Amino acid sequence: MGKVTGFKEFERKLPAKDAPQERLKNYNEFVHSFSEEELNTQAARCMNCGIPFCHSGCPLGNVIPEFNDAVYDGKWEEAYEILSSTNNFPEFTGRICPAPCESACVLGINRSPVAIEEIEKHIAEIAYQKGFAKAKPVTVKTGKSVAVIGSGPAGLAAAAQLSKAGHDVTVYERDDKPGGLLRYGIPDFKLEKWVIDRRIDLMRQEGVVFKCNAEVGVNVPVTELKAFDAIVLAGGSTIPRNLNIPGRELKGVYFAMEFLKQQNKRVGSSPFQEEAILATGKNVLVIGGGDTGSDCVGTSNRHKAKTVTQFELMPKPPGQRTDAMPWPTYPMLLKTTTSHEEGCQRFWSINTKAFIGDDQGNLKSALVVDLAWETDALGRPVKFTEVPNSEREMPCELALLAMGFLHPQHEGLLKQLGVGLDARGNVNAAEGSYKTTVDNVFVAGDMRRGQSLVVWAISEGRECAKKVDEYLMGHSVLESKDSIA
Ligand code: FAD
User: Fold this and answer.
1) How high is the ipTM of this complex?
2) Quick one: average pLDDT of 428-449?
3) Scanning 172, 175, 305, 393, which has its CA 20 to 30 A from the CA of 230?
4) Is 135 a member of any domain?
5) Residue nearest to atom 28 of ligand 1 (CA)
6) Which of 102, 181, 460 to mutate for ligand 1's pocket (most ligand atoms within 8 Å of CB)?
């Protein structure tokens, strides 16, 4: 432990951010960096608990007290070694993870938790600056080959691990550039895309082959996969939940991903064919209170929307621990994102009943109603009714549906491979096995577990790679969460 009394001496601090009005001038990241001295004091707050709950709070099993210790001692190379032994991409999670590790931090019981996520980001960035983050091509190859379908965080993590185990890995991606939702879902103001390119360059140097504009089951025949000894499906959960209410067909009602993907392509100078969806000068209604919704809020404000309003069907969370929400707290539920700081009116317990259009079929307003929620004995919302006389029209010329994703696309790849699906329509494979109902086909990430988080996708990619390695070699040299914990 670096400094025994650190947690008593120092307060949690986060790096400064550009002021909201400054951020809105561009799509760049706006969080400043810590100095090495600030990092040192933040790492010193780690109590090195007898039972580090942060390990189990992190889906990757990151060994957090150990890297905090190395940071406190200024041993950057050691800190990076420790961190990258469980997390292939700390530069991604250090920027966009909701940090369940911080919610599990014991110091968080009566003080602010250790700033683990920021420490993680800085370890990664310093590793790139000082040259510790570099390609490590393997010298002993196994002669086995693996196709990974999808280049989101799950596919990338699986590819990185399988390449490390000595297999020849080819990643197929239907988009023009790799990264999945990291590239075309999450906006640049949360994750600039050079961060992905920098990592992909290292993976290419390690021998991973990326084939883009390659949709397996569409313009790449599934039969091409027969050339590989194993296949990892990491195609994400891409079918959005719709809002089937009157007026859904009006011009001005879109899925969030139609809007976000287009904007990310605009920023990245990638071509797109669809008609431009712009929030400029409009009253924007974002339906859905999660990450996707807040990314729509931040993007609409950068487009210079007239107003931005966000709806959430569920009631407003209490903002403090309750019986329904004991420690460790769930950060997603309490979250006010930086996008909300930039300007947004938020409503909870509200339902949209219809979209109303003008004579030309353009959206002009939404018919909404307030909801009253009944709760169970623990205070959890279980049932709603409409509040009488609360129905009203709200002007909006652009509505963005950000209500989550149902399951992966079944047409094409999955149907042609004939893999089994679970009751929710995700690819069936028990957690811990990652093996589908087809012999040499495995699955990881949102395609298996349903819509989730980047940190879970990386975790699934790593664990799946170990199972593939065992399948191919009879044993595996790769680490798993269980062997580290
Ligand atoms: P994806 O990232 O979806 O990648 C799947 C890839 O597979 C895609 O590139 C797709 O084009 C490709 N593909 C699919 N089918 C084929 C095929 N047949 N052939 C070739 N390629 C194919 N999580 C966080 O932790 N923090 C956040 O801040 C956050 N923000 C988010 C914002 C938005 C707008 C969205 C939609 C999600 C966000 N998430 C966030 C969730 C997170 O991005 C996902 O959980 C994660 O990306 C899932 O990773 P994945 O690799 O399983 O799938």
Assistant:
1) 0.99
2) 95
3) 175
4) no
5) 96
6) 181
How far is Cα 3 from Cα 161, in angstroms, rounded to an integer? 35
- Asked if 184 and 84 sit in the same domain, the reply is no
Instruction: Count the helix, strand and coil residues of the chain and give each as a percent rounded to the nearest 5.
Output: 35, 20, 45
Please state the atom number of ligand 1 nearest to the C-alpha of residue 260.
34
Cis peptide before 100 (omega within 30 of 0): no
The mean predicted confidence, pLDDT, of the chain is 94
Do 294 and 390 fall into the same domain? yes
CA of 66 to the centre of ligand 1 (A): 30
The count of other CB atoms within 10 Å of the CB of residue 318 is 12
Residue 136 in domain: no
What is the pLDDT confidence band of residue 320, given thresholds at 50, 70 and 90? low
CATH number at residue 428: 3.50.50.60
Residue 377 has pLDDT above 90, yes or no: no
Token pair in block for residue 243? 């809002």
Residues 396 and 475 in one domain: no
Centre of ligand 1 to C-alpha 40, Å, is: 34
| pLDDT at 380 (0 to 100) | 83
Instruction: Kindly tell me if the per-residue pLDDT of 336 is higher than 70.
Output: no
- Which residues sit with their C-beta closer than 6 Å to ligand 1? 96-97, 149-155, 172-175, 180-181, 185-186, 190, 214-217, 234-236, 260, 291-292, 295, 412-413, 445-447, 452-455, 457
Q: Tell how strand 441-443 and strand 345-348 pair up.
A: unpaired
In a domain, 425, yes or no: yes
- Structural domain of residue 79, as residue ranges? 6-130
For ligand 1, the distance from its centroid to the CA atom of residue 96, given in whole angstroms, is 13
Question: What is the residue with the minimal CA distance to atom 3 of ligand 1?
Answer: 236
Ligand 1 centroid, distance to 149 Cα (angstroms): 12
Locate the ligand 1 atom nearest the alpha carbon of residue 292 and give its number: 34
pLDDT (0 to 100) of residue 187: 98
Evaluate whether 100 touches 334 at the Cβ level (below 8 Å).
Answer: no
pTM equals 0.96
Across residues 23-44, what is the average pLDDT? 95
The pLDDT of 91-104, averaged and rounded, is: 95
Q: Is 117 within the bounds of a domain?
A: yes
